[in-house]
Amino acid sequence: MPALAHSARRGRPARSHVALRPVLGAAVLALALAGCGGSGSEGSSPASDAGTSSPSAASPSSASTTAPAGSESAAPAAAPIAVTPPAEPVQLANACTFEGAHRFAVGAGADPALPGAEPGAPVLTLRSIDAGGDAPRAVFSATLPDGSVAPVEPAAVGDTFVVGPWMMSVTSVCDDAVEADVIG
Predict the structure, then answer these.
(1) What is the pLDDT of residue 22?
(2) Which among 81, 77, 74, 82 is positioned nearest to 46, based on CA atoms?
(3) N or C terminus of the chain: which is more exposed, having fewer CB within 10 Å?
(4) Residue ranges per structural domain of the chain
(5) pTM score, two decimals?
């Protein structure tokens, strides 16, 4: 019987094509999900915050989640990583103190590498430096082991945040680089 044959009642098409709806729906869903994973990201979960210890809510961020330099496609976004200000405000004449064990140039990771940074550990990258406002702030992102990218809230000198196994303290924010210490 042809798929579009008319039924004997009221000139309606036969219902044989209705059985294709679940199959087509499943195919469209599979194609949509395959397109969301990006290339080479096996088992990625955008909602995962594995290793971040972020106390912030799992709400989407309006910050850019640009993929790290050298990456061909943008990674899925993860929950933002919260920054904790110091108990006492830091009073500095210049936020560029040149003090810190690890230096981050814009678009790069830590130099020297963070302790225990090995394959599978998060990768912390300085995305930009925001010089506006009352104090310059470092804008980091963390590429998590599942391939998702978590933006870090902008951090000024004295602010701390946790990425994977590291608690970072921002110690210097200059025009072209940021320095930080691992404090936990």
Answers:
(1) 42
(2) 77
(3) N
(4) 1-36, 45-184
(5) 0.59
